[in-house]
Each structure stands twice: as structure tokens, then as C-alpha cells.
From TrEMBL:
Binding partners and assembly: Monomer.
Protein residues bound to Zn(2+): C31, C226, H251, E255
InterPro entries named in the record: Cys-tRNA-ligase (IPR015803), Cys-tRNA-synt_Ia_DALR (IPR015273), Cys-tRNA/MSH_ligase (IPR024909), Rossmann-like_a/b/a_fold (IPR014729), tRNA-synt_1_cat_dom (IPR032678), tRNAsynth_Ia_anticodon-bd (IPR009080)
Record protein name field: Cysteine--tRNA ligase
SMART domains recorded: DALR_2
Key words, A-Z: Aminoacyl-tRNA synthetase, ATP-binding, Cytoplasm, Ligase, Metal-binding, Nucleotide-binding, Protein biosynthesis, Zinc
Location of the protein in the cell: Cytoplasm
Family, per entry: Belongs to the class-I aminoacyl-tRNA synthetase family.
UniProt binding sites for ATP: K286
Cofactor note: Binds 1 zinc ion per subunit.
GO function term, MF aspect, one: cysteine-tRNA ligase activity
Substrates-to-products reaction catalysed: tRNA(Cys) + L-cysteine + ATP = L-cysteinyl-tRNA(Cys) + AMP + diphosphate
Pfam family, one: tRNA-synt_1e
């Protein structure tokens, strides 16, 4: 097992040696998407960063339980429990049931994650599937004296909590300043303190999603879902909690408060936060209206784009920045990534064509050590990619006959590419996929030819029409059958 992994902990504001509570098991919770609309590329960046972390932890020999929730209720437009319910608003707009909205955008999210070749989490719990757990947790918080009910709403008492615990531990802000700078929210004057936040929100008669609770009909606040679900699947104390940096100041601060108020200790030992994807320096967000959808980027169908970029080009582009740096979106940077990714894949495809010699001019063990060091240094993917271009140089030098590699070193090099390019960075060769697709099509065309020769026209038509429905047009000519995308 890899014992040299350092990761940056937001709690301590420094890199720390990763020491799991219960090695080789690792528990990791990441705040998932709010599925009331399509995920934008900024969201994807965060989930890709945690995919990299998940993959590297597994490579390091850990048995990881990776829990990433789906927020399908309780998230109001303002992160401080104000405004409309995001799902209800969207449901009205699209004239659908809230659960149809949830289903539609959850499926869309999964499609995008698959296109970007990310691994599924071990558990993907939904907020609506854990209402009972959330109610139970709120009951304990009230019983411990940190929550209070007023007219069907339940609030968390930040002032009371701050007598014993440090509410701003995650972001190191000054509580007095925060109080002074937090405005009173309209319609919530019943709260005792301005920093108090909702644990349970009373439903209006027209509220679409509401549940029975000890405080009447209502729905849970956004923050309690993550505390309840992380505790259920990972225990009251677990290893890593993650999410985008924008979540630290409110959502994660409140999560820590809820968990401590309930079980008297910090939920996670390491808090990891990914930095934002920006457009011209501004954070990409749904509300700012500068959100690129992944499909717009893949197809190039967006006024700011010169052309489309494949999912793996986009992934490579994102991995070329460290997860804690901001990353600005630009055509030029994407074009450079496209070239870089092609160069990497071209070299990888030469691996099987290299001739071996008795001796080796290259030390693959040293290169592997550099790759491991890069990832051990807080998952530094840009440095790893730079090292992988050293592997590209080696491959090209041997292929051009300007250097020698032994059979043993070549095996090590292949293993290194397999581990770091495919397993850890989670890249895949899209050209090879196209080749596979071509072979499958050729096989189907051959089957149709045989059917025609046997006068089995029902089958040959079925194949032609079936392919047509998939957007593939067959054309019979003198030289045989060719195909094109319809
Ligand atoms: P949401 O669907 O808004 O709850 O966000 C899902 C995840 O995406 C959260 O972890 C956010 O912090 C993250 N996120 C939102 N906007 C961006 C962005 N522009 N860049 C990177 N991550 C983001
Ligand atoms: Zn969360």
C-alpha cells in the first residue's frame, strides 16, 4: 500500500500525509449534483477531479467506498434557505412532476459522466430516499440543544453551537465579521440568529414535495442531507469529504456543525476542495448564465466555440490543470490540449510496434517513481502528464531507431502507460473506439450480405432499417456496400 500520499486539507490549510482511519479501507463522500437542470462543465470538472482522486486511491491499494449523493430535494435557490425550491420551479417550467425532472437530469448527468469515462461511485444515495435518516438526525440535534422549532420550521442554533465549537473552522473566518456582514433574510425573522440555518422547512399547501415529520408537513434543508447520508454509509467519522470550493463557506461549514452537534466529533478528517472552472475569469455557473453544457462542447454548437472537442480532449484539458488551481476556458487552450492528447495516444499506439534490444537506454523505474511522486504530491496531474510526455519521447526515440529498449523495460513501460494513462487519469483512446466501431459495422454488413445471398430479405431489411434508425446509412454499389452517417 502507498503510504507516501500527501493531500491538501482545507481544515489545516496545508498538505498532510494521508492516514486513513481504518486502512486499507477509505471512506470518501463528495457532494453530488443538484439534478434540476443539465450539469455544466464546471460541475463536470469537480466530479472529474474526484474521479482522479478515487482512481489514484484505488491504485494506491486502498479499498475505497466512494459515496456521491444526488440532491433531488431541499435545495432552495439561495444557499441560505431562501428563494424558491429549484425542483418545483423547474417542474412548473417544464410542466413535469418534480420526480420527472429528477429522473431526466440524473440520467443526463450519468450519460455525461460515462462519456467522460469516469467511474461510478460505490453508492449514489438520493436526498428523497433518506428523509427518515434526516429527520432522525434533526431530532438528535434538537435533543442535544443545538436546534429549535418555530411554527413547523426547525433551525440550527449557530450561537449556541459556537459556545462549544468553532463554527468557522473550515474557512477560518471571523465569526463577528460574519455576523456583521450577514444580512437578515426577509420572511425569516423568526430565526434566533442571523447565521442560523434551516434543518427542516415547513411546506406550504402548494409545495410539491413534502413529507410528514414531528414538526408537521415539510421538507429537509439542503445541508442536512449530506450529514445524514455520509453518516449512514461512512460512519460518524470518515476519511475524506469533498466538493467544489464554493461549498466550503456555507454548505460544508453547516455540515460540520450538524455532525458535531449530533455526534460530538468532526465528520471528516480531510476536507478536499476543487477549484472552479471559469470563463473569462468568472466562475461558470447556472445562475451567471455562462454555463457551457458538455454536449455543446463536444459538438461545437456554441457561439463562443470555433469547433467541437471530443470528451477525452476535454478531460485531458482539465487534467492539465491541478485540481486546486482555477482553470479558464478558452479555444486556444483546448486546441493545444487536443494536439497534446493526440500526441500521447499516437505514442501509446506505437508501443506494440517497438523492437526490443539486449540493452536499454532508458530507466523506466525512475520514470515510474516520478509519476508516483507527482500523484503523491496532492494528486498533481499536470506534473504527471509532463512525466508521461517523457514516456512519449522514449517511445518515439525507440520507434525512430534512435534509442534502444530491452524487453523487460518495454514491459515496464507498457505497464506504466496502462496504470497512469488509462487507470489513473482515466483517459481512453477514442480513435481505437472508432476502429472498433468500424469492425462491428463491417461484420454487420457482412451478415446482411449473407442474408441477401440466402434470399432472407426480411433479415437484410431489418439490418438496413435498424442501422438507419441508429443514424447509419448503407449504400449498395458495384464494389459492395459502404456506409455513412445519415
Ligand atoms: P450543484 O449541482 O450546483 O450542487 O454543484 C455540483 C458540484 O459542482 C459542487 O461540488 C460545486 O461546488 C461544483 N461546481 C459548481 N460550479 C463549478 C465550477 N464553475 N467549477 C467547478 N466546480 C463547480
Ligand atoms: Zn453536500
Amino acid at each position: 500500500m502507498n503510504t507516501g500520499l500527501q493531500l491538501y486539507n482545507t481544515l489545516s490549510r496545508k498538505k498532510e500525509l494521508f492516514q486513513p482511519l481504518n486502512a486499507p479501507n477509505v471512506g470518501m463522500y463528495v457532494c453530488g449534483p443538484t439534478v434540476y437542470s443539465d450539469v455544466h462543465l464546471g460541475n463536470c470538472r469537480t466530479f472529474m477531479s474526484f474521479d482522479l482522486i478515487f482512481r489514484y486511491l484505488k491504485y494506491s491499494g486502498y479499498k475505497v467506498r466512494y459515496v456521491r449523493n444526488i440532491t433531488d430535494a431541499g435545495h432552495l435557490e439561495g444557499d441560505r434557505d431562501e428563494g424558491d425550491d429549484k425542483f418545483a420551479k423547474r417542474a412548473k417550467l417544464e410542466q413535469l412532476e418534480p420526480m420527472e425532472i429528477v429522473q431526466k437530469y440524473t440520467l443526463g448527468f450519468h450519460d455525461v459522466m460515462r462519456m467522460l469515462n469516469t467511474l461510478s461511485p460505490s453508492i449514489e444515495p438520493t436526498a428523497t430516499g433518506h428523509i427518515i435518516e434526516q429527520i432522525e438526525m434533526i431530532k438528535v440535534i434538537i435533543a442535544n440543544g443545538y436546534g429549535y422549532e418555530i411554527d413547523g420550521n426547525v433551525y440550527f442554533d449557530v450561537e449556541k453551537y459556537s459556545e462549544k465549537y468553532n463554527y468557522t473552522i473550515l474557512t477560518n473566518r471571523n465569526l463577528e465579521d460574519m455576523l456583521a456582514n450577514t444580512r437578515e433574510l426577509g420572511g425569516q425573522n423568526e430565526k434566533r440568529g442571523r447565521l442560523d440555518f434551516a434543518l427542516w422547512i415547513k411546506a406550504k399547501p402548494e409545495t410539491l414535495m413534502q413529507w410528514q415529520s414531528p414538526w408537521g408537513m415539510g421538507f429537509p434543508g439542503w445541508h442536512i442531507e449530506c450529514s445524514a447520508m455520509s453518516a449512514k454509509y461512512l460512519g460518524a467519522e470518515f476519511d475524506i469529504h469533498g466538493g467544489g470550493m464554493d461549498l466550503a463557506a456555507t454548505h460544508h461549514t453547516n455540515e460540520i456543525a450538524q455532525s458535531e452537534a449530533c455526534s460530538h466529533h468532526q465528520p471528516a478528517r480531510y476536507w478536499m476542495h476543487t477549484n472552479m472552472l471559469t470563463v473569462n475569469g468568472t466562475r461558470m455557473s447556472k445562475s451567471a448564465g455562462n454555463g457551457f453544457l458538455p454536449l455543446e462542447l463536444f459538438t461545437g454548437d456554441h457561439p463562443l466555440l470555433k469547433k467541437g472537442y471530443s470528451p477525452m480532449t476535454v478531460k485531458f484539458f482539465m487534467l492539465q490543470a491541478h485540481y486546486r488551481s482555477t482553470l479558464d476556458f478558452s479555444n486556444e487552450a483546448l486546441e493545444a490540449s487536443e494536439k497534446g492528447f493526440r500526441r500521447l495516444m499516437a505514442a501509446v499506439n506505437l508501443l506494440d510496434k517497438l523492437s526490443v534490444s539486449d540493452q536499454s537506454d532508458f530507466g523506466i523505474d525512475a520514470l515510474k517513481e516520478k509519476c508516483v511522486n507527482a500523484m503523491n504530491d496532492d494528486f498533481n496531474s499536470p506534473v504527471l502528464i509532463a512525466e508521461l510526455f517523457e514516456a512519449v519521447r522514449i517511445i518515439n526515440t525507440v520507434y525512430d531507431g534512435k534509442g534502444k529498449i530491452s524487453a523487460e523495460s518495454l514491459e515496464k513501460l507498457k505497464q506504466l502507460i496502462n496504470d497512469f494513462v488509462f487507470d489513473i487519469l482515466g483517459l481512453k483512446d477514442e480513435e481505437t473506439r472508432n476502429l472498433e466501431m468500424n469492425s462491428v459495422l463491417e461484420m454487420v454488413i457482412e451478415l446482411r450480405k449473407e442474408a441477401k445471398e440466402n434470399k432472407d430479405y426480411a433479415t437484410s431489411d431489418k439490418i438496413r432499417i435498424g442501422l438507419q434508425e441508429l443514424g447509419i446509412q448503407l449504400k449498395d454499389g458495384k464494389e459492395g456496400t459502404t456506409w455513412s452517417k445519415a
